[in-house]
Structure formats: C-alpha cells, structure tokens
Design a protein that fits this description.
The chain contains 6 helices and 14 strands. By secondary structure, it is α/β, with parallel strands linked by helices. The chain has a single domain, classed as Metallo-beta-lactamase, Chain A (4-Layer Sandwich). The strands form 3 sheets. The protein has a 6-stranded mixed sheet. Strand 3, helix 1 and strand 4 form a beta-alpha-beta unit.
Length: 212
C-alpha cells in the first residue's frame, strides 16, 4: 500500500508529494522546497522513515513545482523526469523567476528522462500510470495508482476549480477536454491530490466543479 505524504512548500504554497510503500522505496513528485528549512523538513522525513528515493517526477515544469529539483539532485543523485513538451515550450526556470520578479537564484537541472502518457513508474511493490493531461501546460502529467485509488494531478484540476491557462502553452479548451477524458473518467472514489490546496475526488468534481 502506498503512503501519500504531502508537504506545502515555497512562495506559491505548492503541494509536494512523497509516495512510499512497505519496501521503503519512494518517489518524489513536484519538489517545491525552496528554503533551507523546507529542505530539512523533507530530508528529515526521508531519514525518519528510512526511505530510498527512486524517482523525481514532475507533473509539469512551472517554476513553483521545480524549486527543489536542484536540492534533490545534489542530495540524492536523481534527475527530474518530465514530458518533453514542457521542456520545449516553457522558459527556463531562471527566466520564469525573472518574469515573476523573484530574484532568488535557481539552477535548472537537466531532465534525466522524458516520460509520456501510458508510461508506468515503478517503485517497491507499487506502480503509477502516467496520463497526459495538457492544457495548463503542453506536457502536464498526472500519476495514477489504480490499486490505491488516487491520482497526483498537478495543476490540471483543483477542488472546485481548474488550472490557469494563461501561461506558456496553456489552452483552456484543451484542458477541459483533457480533464474530462483523463481525470473524470477515473473511478468516482478516486482521490485527487492537486498541486495547490486540499485534496478532492472524482465524483465531487464531476458533480460540483463549476468549470466542468
């Protein structure tokens, strides 16, 4: 069984997710830790639970979701995995930082592996199905565990809302269609863990999300 541990990091209150199972193997999704105390919070949890990080996954490559990639690369020797469409379409993290008026230094970490829809990410006794849900960004991904009934959905969908589409490569119509096809088609009781804010589930968003 997968344990889902969430952390809220950085200026943008990003949800970073650390998934691990009974083997102690783990994956980190959207590492947003920026300050030293945030890095320490993450590393202390990994030490406390005697975890071995196997993958660093990115739902997408907007600045707020990749702040911690440099720390993870230096500390655990992992390079991020993401969809190539985001690499091609989005400015570098440094350029995004300048555009947002954030003067703190950030270093881009080269993508170690491109992942696409229908890929399987394996760790321990567990696996995650990758689904492509473009619209918030061209290469936005979600990571779905059918066995444990949840999906890490990045900024595609939130509780009662959807991701913004006014950034690089965003497209409102594409996003709505992708959410309906790849997210709301999941079983009704599937828990959705978004990139910001509280968790929700498929049935609630099908019934109550005003954007859908």
């Amino acid at each position: 069984m997968i344990t889902v541990k969430s952390f809220e990091f950085n200026y943008f209150s990003v949800n970073t997710y650390l998934l691990h199972d009974e083997t102690g193997e783990a994956v980190l999704i959207d590492c947003g830790c920026f300050r030293k105390e945030e890095e320490l919070e993450l590393s202390n949890y990994i030490i406390l639970h005697k975890l071995t990080l196997k993958h660093l996954l990115c739902t997408h490559l907007h600045l707020d979701h990749v702040f911690g990639n440099g720390f993870v690369s230096r500390t655990y020797g992992l390079r991020p995995q993401a969809h190539k469409a985001d690499v091609d379409a989005l400015p570098s993290p440094q350029e995004q930082a300048r555009l947002f008026g954030i003067q703190d230094k950030i270093r881009a970490i080269p993508i170690g592996k491109y992942i696409v829809g229908n890929d399987i990410v394996r760790f321990g006794n567990s696996e995650l199905l990758v689904r492509l849900v473009p619209g918030h960004s061209p290469g936005s991904l979600i990571f779905y565990s059918a066995k444990d009934g949840f999906a890490i959905v990045g900024d595609a969908i939130f509780k009662g809302s959807i991701g913004r589409t006014d950034l690089w490569g965003g497209n409102h119509d594409v996003l709505i269609a992708a959410i309906k096809d790849k997210v709301l088609s999941l079983p009704d009781d599937t828990i959705l863990y978004p990139g910001h804010g509280p968790a929700t589930n498929v049935i609630d968003e099908n019934l109550n999300n005003p954007f859908l």
